[in-house]
Amino acid sequence: MDQSEDTLKSDFKIHTTSSNSSLWREGENGQYLPSSRFHERYSIIQDEKDKDKKTEKDAEPSLIKRNQKELHSQRLQPKQIAYHKKHKYVVLEKDNNVQALIDMGENADKTKLPNTWECSKYECDESDANGEAKSDNKKININPQELQFQISIEAICEVEKHISSTKNTVQITDNVSSLLQPMKGLYQSEFLAIENERTLDESKTFAEENIQDGQKLFLYGINGNAMINSGHLKFFLRFSDFKQDSWSVGASSWDALLIKCSKRFQFMGIGIFERYQDPPIEFTLKYKYEIKEEDGTVVIKSEEFKETINYSTSDVNQLHFFKYQLTSFRNGIKVDAGQTLNFMQTLSFTKCYYSESGNAYETYTNPDMGIFQIKTSPNSSNSTELNRGIIPGFLYKLG
């Protein structure tokens, strides 16, 4: 066997059965990137008859590299999902070199090949009836050297207020559970993976969940035998920002919202904006609620409840609110599918942050999209309404 062919086989493990193979090299961060294209194996060794005439000098110089790690190859195929820094997740449609070779004919000048793949944007969390990746109709030509099949993730893990951070490199086609399993074994806990207030489905892949390269994921753990299942606690976010200004509140100022769900749920708690430019203090949350059927019949009209709340700055997120679970209703306020919950509250301090981004709540990423309807309550005497106010979201469980 010719030395050049030996070198290529040992150093690169080239796929020899396709005209659209790719060679991959390991980068500094451990992820594999395409380093060269092979249109025909015989562009280096033309055929078995001529291979004895070839020398190492005849092989492409960039492919002859000694004393390096063995490189791995991955064949690019149509319908394959890849990650691109600019276009994010894409679906490979076809190798543009194939058509170019056909168009050029027998005397093709391979130096003029486009060396690109036609791709389309991947519709995350979607697949067709055959389980294949769905894509939109817009076509993008991408150099395969720019494609990634691994991404980096920073996992911030919290278990009973113990916080740790790790850097992880994951395959985009791996399930989210591949990130959670080591944590489960280490802490003997069950975990939720949260991305921007959205609970990830651990049975789905990172691509399906649209996780970006370099993104932070928050892993929340529960020690002991407590299991997280389909009825776990979730948060519905109705605001996307906050105002650098204050909203007046007080013991007699009622802020309220109407919440309707197409599924049965338990209302577990609320988001509370922190005091405006003031340190945390102990305060009182007073609330009451009303549940109506779709025909307007009142099912429940509650009494007033009072709960004393202590919070710290570490409880507050980047939107200046924290999540509070109601202590008077450990199992939540039960609301059947189609019923409307009218939740009314007051806060005993004087000023807090607020937002005016509620009109677009249906477009914000939440654990359960499309099942909640938010409306202005007729009992809101302190100006909180659909678009603006001080109730940034609520805690809930389905079922």
UniProtKB/TrEMBL annotation:
<dbReference type="InterPro" id="IPR012983">
    <property type="entry name" value="PHR"/>
</dbReference>
<dbReference type="InterPro" id="IPR038648">
    <property type="entry name" value="PHR_sf"/>
</dbReference>
<feature type="region of interest" description="Disordered">
    <location>
        <begin position="1"/>
        <end position="75"/>
    </location>
</feature>
<dbReference type="Pfam" id="PF08005">
    <property type="entry name" value="PHR"/>
</dbReference>
<feature type="domain" description="PHR">
    <location>
        <begin position="238"/>
        <end position="397"/>
    </location>
</feature>
<feature type="compositionally biased region" description="Basic and acidic residues">
    <location>
        <begin position="37"/>
        <end position="60"/>
    </location>
</feature>
<protein>
    <recommendedName>
        <fullName>PHR domain-containing protein</fullName>
    </recommendedName>
</protein>
<feature type="compositionally biased region" description="Basic and acidic residues">
    <location>
        <begin position="1"/>
        <end position="14"/>
    </location>
</feature>
